[in-house]
Request: fold
Amino acid sequence: MRKEVERESIKRLRRRSLVARCASSLMGMFGVVAVCIYLHAPWARAPMEAGQVWRGNVIWLLCGIGLLVVACFFYTVVTQWTRRLLWIRENVAPKSMGLTVEVIEGSPGAIEFYACLYPLEQSREVEEIGWRVKLWANPPDIMRYTSTKLPAKVQFDPDTATPAVVSFEHGILWSMAGSASVERVRAQSP
Reply:
């Protein structure tokens, strides 16, 4: 893989991580404002009349604490997963596999991308033939590679033994965090 393509793929991952962390931080700020409204409405620059209604209303406290917990959780997951992917990229030996990109269109505007990985040499006795990995930070022209068989270098997470980083000629595909994002694919009956 060319060095500039690799650098651009790593920059894309870092940008995606930064955007996700900023969104988590913003959610955390809304949580702080909600807790401030519960404790004392003028801290949140609420009008005095509205402050009398808002102050002491438990829904603001619950909403604020909930937003803070969710924001901290997502911020931590995004930060740690990005570091983990970059560590895997630098420290784990890749395995050669075949790659096809699968696209699933959900609700309007929601498109999910999956990397379907399969061993280059298949045995008839092996029932499980590969992996289906939900992707996080993708090359901008990933639609070009759907339904095309491509050679790839796959780096597996040493802790879970699942694919985490997929490098191919046109970039790097990064897996989504979480155990549900990677699944084994079973052979189809002929």
